[in-house]
Amino acid sequence: MTTTRDPNKFWNPYLAGVALGLVLLAAFAIEGKGLGASGAWFRAGVAGVQAVAPGHVQATPAFRAATEGGSPLDDYMVFLMVGVVLGGFVAAYTSGRLGLEVLKGPNISTAGRLAMALGGGALMGLGAKFARGCASGQALTGGALMSAGAWAFMGVFFGGGYALAYFVRRAWR
Amino acid sequence: MNHLLPFTSLAVEQRELGLVVAVLIGFGFGFVLERAGFGRAQKLIGQFLLSEMTVLKVMFGAVATAMVGSVAMGGLGLFDLRAVADSASSATWLWPMVVGGFVVGMGFVISSYCPGTSVVAMASGKIDGLFTVLGVILGSLVAGELLSIPAVAAFNDSSFLGHLYLYDLLGVPAAVVAIAVALVAVAAFVGAEKLEAIFGGEGRPDSPARPRRAVFATLVGLGALGLVTLAFPRPTPAATAGPVTITAEALARRLFDEPWSVRVLDLRAKEACFARRVPGSECTPPEALKALSLADLTGARDLVVVGEGDLAALPGEITAYPGKVLALRQGFAGWTAWALTPPAPLPASATAAEREAWKVRAGVSAAMTGVKQAPPPAAPAGGAAPAKRKAGGGGCSG
Hints:
By secondary structure, chain A is mainly alpha-helical.
Protein backbone atom coordinates (compact mmCIF):
# COMPACT_ATOMS: atom_id res chain seq x y z
CA MET A 1 0.00 0.00 0.00
CA THR A 2 1.37 3.38 -0.94
CA THR A 3 1.63 6.15 1.59
CA THR A 4 -0.45 8.52 -0.51
CA ARG A 5 -3.58 6.54 0.33
CA ASP A 6 -5.19 7.88 3.45
CA PRO A 7 -8.30 5.90 4.38
CA ASN A 8 -9.51 8.80 6.50
CA LYS A 9 -9.31 11.33 3.70
CA PHE A 10 -12.59 12.02 1.94
CA TRP A 11 -13.63 14.47 -0.71
CA ASN A 12 -14.82 17.84 0.45
CA PRO A 13 -18.55 17.20 0.99
CA TYR A 14 -19.59 20.20 -1.08
CA LEU A 15 -17.48 19.14 -4.05
CA ALA A 16 -18.70 15.55 -3.62
CA GLY A 17 -22.26 16.91 -3.70
CA VAL A 18 -21.62 18.76 -6.94
CA ALA A 19 -19.96 15.66 -8.43
CA LEU A 20 -22.93 13.50 -7.44
CA GLY A 21 -25.27 16.12 -8.89
CA LEU A 22 -23.38 16.00 -12.18
CA VAL A 23 -23.64 12.19 -12.31
CA LEU A 24 -27.37 12.56 -11.73
CA LEU A 25 -27.63 15.24 -14.40
CA ALA A 26 -25.77 12.96 -16.82
CA ALA A 27 -28.33 10.21 -16.16
CA PHE A 28 -31.15 12.67 -16.92
CA ALA A 29 -29.52 14.10 -20.03
CA ILE A 30 -28.19 10.90 -21.61
CA GLU A 31 -30.69 8.24 -20.59
CA GLY A 32 -33.69 10.27 -19.50
CA LYS A 33 -33.56 8.26 -16.29
CA GLY A 34 -32.41 8.76 -12.73
CA LEU A 35 -30.42 6.90 -10.12
CA GLY A 36 -31.82 4.18 -7.91
CA ALA A 37 -30.86 1.22 -5.83
CA SER A 38 -33.82 -0.52 -4.24
CA GLY A 39 -35.46 -1.44 -7.56
CA ALA A 40 -32.42 -3.36 -8.75
CA TRP A 41 -32.25 -5.41 -5.55
CA PHE A 42 -35.94 -6.22 -5.76
CA ARG A 43 -35.29 -7.51 -9.27
CA ALA A 44 -32.31 -9.51 -8.02
CA GLY A 45 -34.58 -11.02 -5.37
CA VAL A 46 -37.24 -11.87 -7.95
CA ALA A 47 -34.55 -13.52 -10.09
CA GLY A 48 -33.62 -15.60 -7.07
CA VAL A 49 -37.22 -16.62 -6.45
CA GLN A 50 -37.62 -17.42 -10.13
CA ALA A 51 -34.66 -19.78 -9.98
CA VAL A 52 -36.28 -21.88 -7.24
CA ALA A 53 -40.02 -21.32 -7.77
CA PRO A 54 -40.86 -19.87 -11.19
CA GLY A 55 -44.55 -20.66 -10.71
CA HIS A 56 -44.66 -18.53 -7.59
CA VAL A 57 -43.27 -15.53 -9.49
CA GLN A 58 -46.02 -15.83 -12.07
CA ALA A 59 -48.65 -16.18 -9.35
CA THR A 60 -47.52 -13.03 -7.51
CA PRO A 61 -48.49 -9.84 -9.37
CA ALA A 62 -45.68 -7.69 -7.93
CA PHE A 63 -43.07 -10.28 -8.93
CA ARG A 64 -44.62 -10.91 -12.32
CA ALA A 65 -44.37 -7.19 -13.12
CA ALA A 66 -40.58 -7.47 -12.82
CA THR A 67 -40.54 -10.22 -15.46
CA GLU A 68 -42.51 -8.20 -18.03
CA GLY A 69 -39.44 -7.46 -20.18
CA GLY A 70 -38.08 -11.03 -20.03
CA SER A 71 -35.52 -11.68 -17.31
CA PRO A 72 -36.01 -9.56 -14.18
CA LEU A 73 -32.30 -8.71 -14.43
CA ASP A 74 -32.59 -7.26 -17.94
CA ASP A 75 -33.21 -3.72 -16.73
CA TYR A 76 -31.52 -0.32 -16.65
CA MET A 77 -31.52 -0.21 -12.86
CA VAL A 78 -29.75 -3.57 -12.58
CA PHE A 79 -26.97 -2.48 -14.95
CA LEU A 80 -26.70 0.80 -13.05
CA MET A 81 -26.21 -1.25 -9.89
CA VAL A 82 -23.45 -3.33 -11.53
CA GLY A 83 -21.72 0.00 -12.16
CA VAL A 84 -22.21 1.11 -8.55
CA VAL A 85 -20.52 -2.08 -7.30
CA LEU A 86 -17.60 -1.57 -9.68
CA GLY A 87 -17.29 2.16 -8.94
CA GLY A 88 -17.49 1.60 -5.20
CA PHE A 89 -14.87 -1.15 -5.41
CA VAL A 90 -12.42 0.92 -7.47
CA ALA A 91 -12.88 3.99 -5.26
CA ALA A 92 -12.39 1.93 -2.10
CA TYR A 93 -9.31 0.21 -3.50
CA THR A 94 -7.68 3.44 -4.65
CA SER A 95 -8.43 5.21 -1.36
CA GLY A 96 -7.11 2.40 0.82
CA ARG A 97 -10.52 1.72 2.32
CA LEU A 98 -10.94 -1.73 0.77
CA GLY A 99 -10.86 -4.48 3.37
CA LEU A 100 -13.04 -7.14 4.93
CA GLU A 101 -14.43 -5.81 8.20
CA VAL A 102 -17.60 -5.08 10.13
CA LEU A 103 -18.16 -1.39 10.82
CA LYS A 104 -19.65 -0.97 14.27
CA GLY A 105 -19.58 1.12 17.42
CA PRO A 106 -17.55 0.04 20.48
CA ASN A 107 -20.58 -1.02 22.56
CA ILE A 108 -22.19 -3.55 20.25
CA SER A 109 -21.26 -7.11 19.33
CA THR A 110 -20.51 -8.10 15.76
CA ALA A 111 -23.59 -10.31 15.69
CA GLY A 112 -25.69 -7.46 17.04
CA ARG A 113 -24.39 -5.07 14.39
CA LEU A 114 -25.05 -7.57 11.59
CA ALA A 115 -28.56 -8.20 12.91
CA MET A 116 -29.23 -4.46 12.88
CA ALA A 117 -27.82 -4.20 9.36
CA LEU A 118 -30.07 -7.02 8.15
CA GLY A 119 -33.15 -5.73 9.97
CA GLY A 120 -32.62 -2.12 8.93
CA GLY A 121 -32.04 -3.25 5.35
CA ALA A 122 -35.28 -5.26 5.44
CA LEU A 123 -37.21 -2.20 6.67
CA MET A 124 -35.71 -0.14 3.84
CA GLY A 125 -36.57 -2.77 1.24
CA LEU A 126 -40.12 -2.93 2.57
CA GLY A 127 -40.59 0.83 2.78
CA ALA A 128 -38.96 1.54 -0.56
CA LYS A 129 -41.44 -0.72 -2.36
CA PHE A 130 -44.35 1.38 -1.10
CA ALA A 131 -42.47 4.65 -1.47
CA ARG A 132 -41.55 3.81 -5.09
CA GLY A 133 -37.91 4.34 -4.33
CA CYS A 134 -35.30 4.90 -1.70
CA ALA A 135 -32.91 7.70 -0.86
CA SER A 136 -31.46 7.63 -4.39
CA GLY A 137 -34.60 6.97 -6.40
CA GLN A 138 -36.89 9.36 -4.54
CA ALA A 139 -34.83 11.88 -2.57
CA LEU A 140 -32.03 12.39 -5.11
CA THR A 141 -33.73 11.77 -8.46
CA GLY A 142 -37.26 12.92 -7.65
CA GLY A 143 -35.98 15.70 -5.43
CA ALA A 144 -33.80 17.15 -8.17
CA LEU A 145 -36.69 16.95 -10.64
CA MET A 146 -38.90 18.82 -8.17
CA SER A 147 -41.38 15.95 -7.76
CA ALA A 148 -43.79 16.91 -4.97
CA GLY A 149 -43.99 13.33 -3.70
CA ALA A 150 -40.20 13.07 -3.55
CA TRP A 151 -40.00 16.14 -1.31
CA ALA A 152 -42.71 14.67 0.93
CA PHE A 153 -40.65 11.47 1.00
CA MET A 154 -37.53 13.41 1.98
CA GLY A 155 -39.33 15.08 4.87
CA VAL A 156 -40.66 11.84 6.39
CA PHE A 157 -37.42 9.99 5.58
CA PHE A 158 -35.42 12.33 7.79
CA GLY A 159 -38.35 12.46 10.23
CA GLY A 160 -38.31 8.67 10.59
CA GLY A 161 -34.54 8.75 11.02
CA TYR A 162 -34.45 11.42 13.70
CA ALA A 163 -37.44 9.84 15.50
CA LEU A 164 -35.43 6.66 16.00
CA ALA A 165 -31.93 8.12 16.27
CA TYR A 166 -32.13 8.59 20.04
CA PHE A 167 -32.68 4.87 20.52
CA VAL A 168 -29.85 3.66 18.33
CA ARG A 169 -27.19 6.13 19.45
CA ARG A 170 -25.81 3.66 22.01
CA ALA A 171 -24.87 1.34 19.21
CA TRP A 172 -22.37 3.91 17.95
CA ARG A 173 -21.04 5.58 21.08
CA MET B 1 -40.73 19.95 -30.65
CA ASN B 2 -37.66 17.78 -30.93
CA HIS B 3 -34.95 17.94 -28.33
CA LEU B 4 -31.39 16.76 -28.64
CA LEU B 5 -31.49 15.06 -25.25
CA PRO B 6 -32.01 12.59 -23.78
CA PHE B 7 -30.98 10.00 -26.37
CA THR B 8 -34.30 8.18 -26.50
CA SER B 9 -32.83 5.56 -28.84
CA LEU B 10 -30.86 4.24 -25.85
CA ALA B 11 -34.12 2.86 -24.46
CA VAL B 12 -35.23 1.05 -27.61
CA GLU B 13 -33.15 0.63 -30.78
CA GLN B 14 -29.79 0.89 -29.02
CA ARG B 15 -30.82 -0.68 -25.76
CA GLU B 16 -27.55 -2.59 -25.32
CA LEU B 17 -25.57 0.64 -25.63
CA GLY B 18 -27.99 2.26 -23.19
CA LEU B 19 -27.26 -0.49 -20.68
CA VAL B 20 -23.51 -0.06 -21.14
CA VAL B 21 -23.92 3.66 -20.47
CA ALA B 22 -26.00 2.73 -17.40
CA VAL B 23 -23.01 0.78 -16.05
CA LEU B 24 -20.78 3.83 -16.62
CA ILE B 25 -23.23 6.16 -14.86
CA GLY B 26 -23.51 3.65 -12.02
CA PHE B 27 -19.72 3.56 -11.82
CA GLY B 28 -19.65 7.33 -11.34
CA PHE B 29 -22.44 7.07 -8.77
CA GLY B 30 -20.64 4.39 -6.74
CA PHE B 31 -17.25 6.12 -7.05
CA VAL B 32 -18.54 9.48 -5.80
CA LEU B 33 -20.52 7.89 -2.96
CA GLU B 34 -17.41 6.05 -1.78
CA ARG B 35 -15.18 9.12 -2.00
CA ALA B 36 -17.76 11.17 -0.11
CA GLY B 37 -17.42 8.63 2.70
CA PHE B 38 -20.82 7.03 2.18
CA GLY B 39 -19.36 3.54 2.31
CA ARG B 40 -18.80 4.13 6.01
CA ALA B 41 -21.68 3.58 8.38
CA GLN B 42 -20.22 6.04 10.91
CA LYS B 43 -20.25 8.90 8.45
CA LEU B 44 -23.87 8.26 7.52
CA ILE B 45 -25.22 7.79 11.03
CA GLY B 46 -23.42 10.95 12.11
CA GLN B 47 -26.13 12.92 10.34
CA PHE B 48 -28.73 11.55 12.75
CA LEU B 49 -26.51 11.81 15.82
CA LEU B 50 -25.76 15.42 14.78
CA SER B 51 -22.01 14.84 14.99
CA GLU B 52 -21.46 15.52 11.30
CA MET B 53 -23.58 16.84 8.48
CA THR B 54 -21.92 15.15 5.51
CA VAL B 55 -25.13 13.45 4.37
CA LEU B 56 -27.00 16.75 4.27
CA LYS B 57 -24.17 18.55 2.50
CA VAL B 58 -23.66 15.91 -0.17
CA MET B 59 -27.32 15.11 -0.76
CA PHE B 60 -28.60 18.66 -0.75
CA GLY B 61 -25.62 19.75 -2.85
CA ALA B 62 -26.34 16.99 -5.38
CA VAL B 63 -30.05 17.78 -5.52
CA ALA B 64 -29.42 21.50 -5.97
CA THR B 65 -26.73 20.93 -8.61
CA ALA B 66 -28.83 18.52 -10.66
CA MET B 67 -31.88 20.75 -10.26
CA VAL B 68 -30.34 24.00 -11.43
CA GLY B 69 -28.43 22.04 -14.08
CA SER B 70 -31.54 20.43 -15.51
CA VAL B 71 -33.51 23.69 -15.36
CA ALA B 72 -30.70 25.45 -17.21
CA MET B 73 -30.51 22.65 -19.82
CA GLY B 74 -34.29 22.75 -20.19
CA GLY B 75 -34.20 26.51 -20.54
CA LEU B 76 -31.55 26.26 -23.25
CA GLY B 77 -33.79 23.85 -25.15
CA LEU B 78 -31.49 20.83 -24.78
CA PHE B 79 -34.28 18.75 -23.30
CA ASP B 80 -37.86 19.05 -22.16
CA LEU B 81 -37.63 19.26 -18.38
CA ARG B 82 -41.14 17.94 -17.76
CA ALA B 83 -40.73 15.03 -20.18
CA VAL B 84 -37.41 14.03 -18.59
CA ALA B 85 -38.95 14.34 -15.13
CA ASP B 86 -41.92 12.20 -16.18
CA SER B 87 -39.64 9.44 -17.43
CA ALA B 88 -36.94 9.61 -14.72
CA SER B 89 -38.99 10.05 -11.56
CA SER B 90 -41.94 8.14 -10.21
CA ALA B 91 -45.43 9.56 -10.08
CA THR B 92 -46.81 10.51 -6.68
CA TRP B 93 -48.88 8.18 -4.50
CA LEU B 94 -48.90 10.45 -1.49
CA TRP B 95 -49.77 8.21 1.48
CA PRO B 96 -47.86 5.09 0.45
CA MET B 97 -44.84 7.34 -0.15
CA VAL B 98 -45.19 9.08 3.21
CA VAL B 99 -45.53 5.81 5.13
CA GLY B 100 -42.85 4.10 3.02
CA GLY B 101 -40.50 7.05 3.43
CA PHE B 102 -40.89 6.92 7.21
CA VAL B 103 -40.10 3.20 7.23
CA VAL B 104 -37.06 3.74 4.98
CA GLY B 105 -35.85 6.48 7.35
CA MET B 106 -36.14 4.12 10.33
CA GLY B 107 -34.33 1.40 8.39
CA PHE B 108 -31.59 3.87 7.53
CA VAL B 109 -30.94 4.69 11.17
CA ILE B 110 -31.00 1.02 12.23
CA SER B 111 -28.67 -0.21 9.50
CA SER B 112 -26.73 3.07 9.12
CA TYR B 113 -26.93 2.70 5.35
CA CYS B 114 -29.43 3.47 2.67
CA PRO B 115 -30.00 0.96 -0.13
CA GLY B 116 -27.47 2.72 -2.39
CA THR B 117 -24.71 3.33 0.12
CA SER B 118 -24.95 -0.21 1.49
CA VAL B 119 -23.90 -1.41 -1.97
CA VAL B 120 -20.81 0.81 -1.87
CA ALA B 121 -20.02 -0.47 1.64
CA MET B 122 -20.42 -4.04 0.40
CA ALA B 123 -18.17 -3.34 -2.58
CA SER B 124 -15.47 -2.03 -0.23
CA GLY B 125 -15.58 -5.19 1.84
CA LYS B 126 -17.82 -4.11 4.71
CA ILE B 127 -19.75 -7.15 5.88
CA ASP B 128 -22.43 -5.02 7.54
CA GLY B 129 -22.99 -3.46 4.11
CA LEU B 130 -23.50 -6.93 2.63
CA PHE B 131 -26.03 -7.76 5.36
CA THR B 132 -27.90 -4.53 4.66
CA VAL B 133 -28.09 -5.42 0.96
CA LEU B 134 -29.42 -8.87 1.87
CA GLY B 135 -31.96 -7.17 4.13
CA VAL B 136 -33.09 -4.87 1.32
CA ILE B 137 -33.65 -7.88 -0.94
CA LEU B 138 -35.60 -9.72 1.75
CA GLY B 139 -37.66 -6.67 2.68
CA SER B 140 -38.63 -5.87 -0.90
CA LEU B 141 -39.60 -9.51 -1.52
CA VAL B 142 -41.78 -9.42 1.59
CA ALA B 143 -43.36 -6.21 0.28
CA GLY B 144 -43.99 -7.94 -3.05
CA GLU B 145 -45.74 -10.79 -1.21
CA LEU B 146 -47.77 -8.37 0.90
CA LEU B 147 -48.97 -6.63 -2.26
CA SER B 148 -50.88 -9.82 -3.12
CA ILE B 149 -53.21 -8.98 -0.22
CA PRO B 150 -56.02 -6.86 -1.70
CA ALA B 151 -56.11 -4.37 1.20
CA VAL B 152 -52.36 -3.79 0.99
CA ALA B 153 -52.50 -3.40 -2.77
CA ALA B 154 -55.37 -0.93 -2.40
CA PHE B 155 -53.33 1.16 0.04
CA ASN B 156 -50.33 0.97 -2.29
CA ASP B 157 -52.45 2.37 -5.14
CA SER B 158 -54.21 5.00 -3.04
CA SER B 159 -53.87 8.80 -3.11
CA PHE B 160 -52.50 8.75 -6.65
CA LEU B 161 -51.71 12.27 -7.81
CA GLY B 162 -49.94 11.50 -11.08
CA HIS B 163 -46.78 13.37 -11.91
CA LEU B 164 -46.99 16.37 -9.65
CA TYR B 165 -44.16 18.89 -9.46
CA LEU B 166 -43.41 21.68 -7.04
CA TYR B 167 -43.64 24.25 -9.83
CA ASP B 168 -47.20 23.03 -10.59
CA LEU B 169 -48.18 23.19 -6.93
CA LEU B 170 -46.72 26.66 -6.47
CA GLY B 171 -47.74 27.89 -9.90
CA VAL B 172 -44.32 29.37 -10.66
CA PRO B 173 -41.72 28.58 -13.35
CA ALA B 174 -39.38 25.68 -12.59
CA ALA B 175 -36.39 28.05 -12.59
CA VAL B 176 -37.86 30.00 -9.68
CA VAL B 177 -38.21 26.79 -7.65
CA ALA B 178 -34.65 25.80 -8.58
CA ILE B 179 -33.06 29.07 -7.48
CA ALA B 180 -35.13 29.04 -4.29
CA VAL B 181 -33.89 25.51 -3.53
CA ALA B 182 -30.31 26.54 -4.31
CA LEU B 183 -30.60 29.45 -1.87
CA VAL B 184 -32.19 27.23 0.80
CA ALA B 185 -29.36 24.74 0.25
CA VAL B 186 -26.72 27.40 0.79
CA ALA B 187 -28.54 28.55 3.95
CA ALA B 188 -28.73 24.92 5.15
CA PHE B 189 -25.00 24.50 4.54
CA VAL B 190 -24.23 27.54 6.66
CA GLY B 191 -26.51 26.13 9.38
CA ALA B 192 -24.84 22.71 9.09
CA GLU B 193 -21.42 24.25 9.67
CA LYS B 194 -22.77 25.91 12.84
CA LEU B 195 -24.32 22.61 14.06
CA GLU B 196 -21.06 20.76 13.46
CA ALA B 197 -19.22 23.42 15.45
CA ILE B 198 -21.60 22.85 18.35
CA PHE B 199 -22.07 19.05 18.33
CA GLY B 200 -19.11 17.81 16.32
CA GLY B 201 -16.45 18.15 19.00
CA GLU B 202 -12.84 17.22 18.28
CA GLY B 203 -13.33 14.71 15.53
CA ARG B 204 -15.51 16.82 13.30
CA PRO B 205 -14.56 16.75 9.65
CA ASP B 206 -13.23 19.93 8.19
CA SER B 207 -14.60 21.24 4.95
CA PRO B 208 -12.14 23.85 3.75
CA ALA B 209 -13.71 27.22 3.15
CA ARG B 210 -12.44 27.92 -0.35
CA PRO B 211 -14.20 25.08 -2.23
CA ARG B 212 -17.22 25.74 -0.06
CA ARG B 213 -17.46 29.33 -1.21
CA ALA B 214 -16.88 28.24 -4.81
CA VAL B 215 -19.76 25.75 -4.59
CA PHE B 216 -22.06 28.30 -2.96
CA ALA B 217 -21.27 30.89 -5.61
CA THR B 218 -21.71 28.38 -8.45
CA LEU B 219 -25.09 27.23 -7.17
CA VAL B 220 -26.38 30.77 -6.95
CA GLY B 221 -24.85 31.59 -10.34
CA LEU B 222 -26.41 28.56 -12.05
CA GLY B 223 -29.75 29.39 -10.49
CA ALA B 224 -29.45 32.87 -11.91
CA LEU B 225 -28.65 31.38 -15.34
CA GLY B 226 -31.84 29.33 -15.08
CA LEU B 227 -33.77 32.52 -14.37
CA VAL B 228 -32.17 34.26 -17.34
CA THR B 229 -33.24 31.45 -19.69
CA LEU B 230 -36.84 32.21 -18.74
CA ALA B 231 -36.53 35.31 -20.90
CA PHE B 232 -35.67 33.19 -23.97
CA PRO B 233 -38.34 32.90 -26.63
CA ARG B 234 -40.07 29.54 -26.52
CA PRO B 235 -42.87 27.85 -28.39
CA THR B 236 -46.38 28.53 -27.16
CA PRO B 237 -47.73 26.12 -24.59
CA ALA B 238 -50.31 24.99 -27.15
CA ALA B 239 -47.66 22.57 -28.40
CA THR B 240 -47.85 20.68 -25.12
CA ALA B 241 -51.65 20.61 -24.83
CA GLY B 242 -53.02 17.07 -25.00
CA PRO B 243 -50.99 13.88 -25.33
CA VAL B 244 -48.48 13.20 -28.12
CA THR B 245 -50.29 11.45 -30.96
CA ILE B 246 -49.48 8.82 -33.55
CA THR B 247 -51.35 8.46 -36.83
CA ALA B 248 -53.19 5.27 -37.73
CA GLU B 249 -50.73 4.73 -40.59
CA ALA B 250 -47.67 5.13 -38.38
CA LEU B 251 -49.20 2.73 -35.87
CA ALA B 252 -49.99 0.15 -38.55
CA ARG B 253 -46.44 0.32 -39.87
CA ARG B 254 -45.03 -0.21 -36.41
CA LEU B 255 -47.41 -3.09 -35.73
CA PHE B 256 -46.25 -4.85 -38.87
CA ASP B 257 -42.57 -3.92 -38.89
CA GLU B 258 -41.67 -3.97 -35.22
CA PRO B 259 -44.61 -5.27 -33.18
CA TRP B 260 -42.29 -5.86 -30.23
CA SER B 261 -41.70 -2.12 -29.84
CA VAL B 262 -45.28 -1.13 -29.08
CA ARG B 263 -47.99 -2.15 -26.69
CA VAL B 264 -51.48 -1.00 -27.65
CA LEU B 265 -54.08 -0.43 -24.94
CA ASP B 266 -57.69 0.14 -25.98
CA LEU B 267 -59.41 2.35 -23.41
CA ARG B 268 -62.89 2.04 -24.90
CA ALA B 269 -65.67 0.11 -23.18
CA LYS B 270 -65.02 -3.63 -23.11
CA GLU B 271 -67.93 -4.56 -25.40
CA ALA B 272 -66.88 -2.14 -28.13
CA CYS B 273 -63.28 -3.26 -27.87
CA PHE B 274 -64.14 -6.97 -27.99
CA ALA B 275 -66.21 -6.37 -31.10
CA ARG B 276 -63.53 -4.56 -33.11
CA ARG B 277 -60.11 -3.31 -32.18
CA VAL B 278 -56.64 -2.57 -33.49
CA PRO B 279 -54.91 -5.94 -34.05
CA GLY B 280 -52.73 -6.94 -31.14
CA SER B 281 -54.30 -4.40 -28.79
CA GLU B 282 -55.47 -5.18 -25.28
CA CYS B 283 -58.96 -4.29 -24.10
CA THR B 284 -58.22 -2.22 -21.04
CA PRO B 285 -61.05 0.11 -20.06
CA PRO B 286 -59.85 2.77 -17.58
CA GLU B 287 -60.98 0.76 -14.54
CA ALA B 288 -58.80 -2.18 -15.63
CA LEU B 289 -55.61 -0.12 -15.89
CA LYS B 290 -54.64 -0.41 -12.25
CA ALA B 291 -54.15 -4.15 -12.55
CA LEU B 292 -51.52 -3.64 -15.27
CA SER B 293 -49.07 -1.96 -12.84
CA LEU B 294 -47.87 0.20 -15.73
CA ALA B 295 -45.81 2.40 -13.40
CA ASP B 296 -43.70 -0.61 -12.39
CA LEU B 297 -42.77 -1.67 -15.91
CA THR B 298 -39.50 -0.86 -17.60
CA GLY B 299 -40.96 1.36 -20.30
CA ALA B 300 -38.97 -0.44 -22.99
CA ARG B 301 -42.00 -0.57 -25.29
CA ASP B 302 -43.90 2.50 -26.38
CA LEU B 303 -47.46 2.58 -25.12
CA VAL B 304 -50.15 3.49 -27.64
CA VAL B 305 -53.57 4.28 -26.19
CA VAL B 306 -56.75 4.11 -28.24
CA GLY B 307 -59.90 5.98 -27.30
CA GLU B 308 -63.18 6.52 -29.13
CA GLY B 309 -61.78 9.66 -30.68
CA ASP B 310 -58.96 12.01 -29.70
CA LEU B 311 -58.07 11.75 -26.03
CA ALA B 312 -58.04 15.12 -24.29
CA ALA B 313 -56.12 13.81 -21.30
CA LEU B 314 -54.63 10.46 -20.36
CA PRO B 315 -55.55 8.54 -17.20
CA GLY B 316 -53.02 8.79 -14.38
CA GLU B 317 -52.08 5.10 -14.64
CA ILE B 318 -51.04 5.72 -18.25
CA THR B 319 -48.97 8.83 -17.55
CA ALA B 320 -47.24 6.94 -14.75
CA TYR B 321 -45.81 4.56 -17.39
CA PRO B 322 -42.04 5.13 -17.44
CA GLY B 323 -41.73 4.79 -21.23
CA LYS B 324 -43.07 6.79 -24.15
CA VAL B 325 -46.85 7.17 -24.37
CA LEU B 326 -48.64 7.96 -27.64
CA ALA B 327 -52.33 8.48 -28.27
CA LEU B 328 -53.81 7.19 -31.52
CA ARG B 329 -54.88 10.27 -33.47
CA GLN B 330 -58.68 10.44 -33.66
CA GLY B 331 -58.78 7.22 -31.64
CA PHE B 332 -60.58 4.15 -32.97
CA ALA B 333 -62.62 6.37 -35.29
CA GLY B 334 -59.33 7.38 -36.93
CA TRP B 335 -58.33 3.71 -37.22
CA THR B 336 -61.68 2.81 -38.81
CA ALA B 337 -61.41 5.62 -41.31
CA TRP B 338 -57.88 4.67 -42.29
CA ALA B 339 -57.62 0.91 -41.92
CA LEU B 340 -61.19 -0.32 -42.37
CA THR B 341 -62.11 1.86 -45.31
CA PRO B 342 -60.72 0.76 -48.68
CA PRO B 343 -58.45 3.44 -50.12
CA ALA B 344 -59.51 5.22 -53.27
CA PRO B 345 -57.71 3.94 -56.37
CA LEU B 346 -54.53 5.77 -57.24
CA PRO B 347 -54.10 7.78 -60.41
CA ALA B 348 -51.39 6.44 -62.71
CA SER B 349 -49.38 9.57 -62.05
CA ALA B 350 -48.93 8.69 -58.37
CA THR B 351 -45.40 8.93 -56.99
CA ALA B 352 -43.51 5.96 -55.62
CA ALA B 353 -44.16 7.20 -52.07
CA GLU B 354 -47.89 7.46 -52.72
CA ARG B 355 -47.90 3.95 -54.20
CA GLU B 356 -46.08 2.66 -51.18
CA ALA B 357 -48.53 4.31 -48.77
CA TRP B 358 -51.46 3.03 -50.82
CA LYS B 359 -50.18 -0.52 -50.72
CA VAL B 360 -49.75 -0.46 -46.96
CA ARG B 361 -53.19 0.94 -46.45
CA ALA B 362 -54.80 -1.47 -48.89
CA GLY B 363 -52.97 -4.34 -47.23
CA VAL B 364 -54.13 -3.36 -43.76
CA SER B 365 -57.64 -2.78 -44.95
CA ALA B 366 -57.69 -6.14 -46.75
CA ALA B 367 -56.39 -7.92 -43.69
CA MET B 368 -58.91 -6.24 -41.46
CA THR B 369 -61.98 -6.52 -43.65
CA GLY B 370 -61.27 -9.51 -45.83
CA VAL B 371 -61.94 -7.44 -48.94
CA LYS B 372 -59.09 -7.48 -51.44
CA GLN B 373 -58.24 -4.29 -53.23
CA ALA B 374 -57.47 -4.04 -56.91
CA PRO B 375 -53.72 -3.92 -57.43
CA PRO B 376 -52.26 -0.44 -57.81
CA PRO B 377 -51.79 0.88 -61.29
CA ALA B 378 -48.51 -0.20 -62.83
CA ALA B 379 -45.48 1.88 -61.94
CA PRO B 380 -44.29 4.10 -64.74
CA ALA B 381 -41.70 2.34 -66.91
CA GLY B 382 -38.14 3.01 -65.87
CA GLY B 383 -39.23 4.03 -62.39
CA ALA B 384 -37.72 2.48 -59.34
CA ALA B 385 -39.07 -0.93 -58.49
CA PRO B 386 -41.77 -0.63 -55.86
CA ALA B 387 -40.32 -1.11 -52.44
CA LYS B 388 -40.82 -4.60 -51.10
CA ARG B 389 -42.94 -4.69 -47.99
CA LYS B 390 -44.34 -7.44 -45.94
CA ALA B 391 -47.79 -8.32 -47.16
CA GLY B 392 -50.39 -6.41 -45.24
CA GLY B 393 -51.87 -9.58 -43.76
CA GLY B 394 -48.85 -10.40 -41.67
CA GLY B 395 -49.29 -12.33 -38.48
CA CYS B 396 -51.25 -9.58 -36.83
CA SER B 397 -54.49 -9.72 -38.74
CA GLY B 398 -57.48 -9.57 -36.47
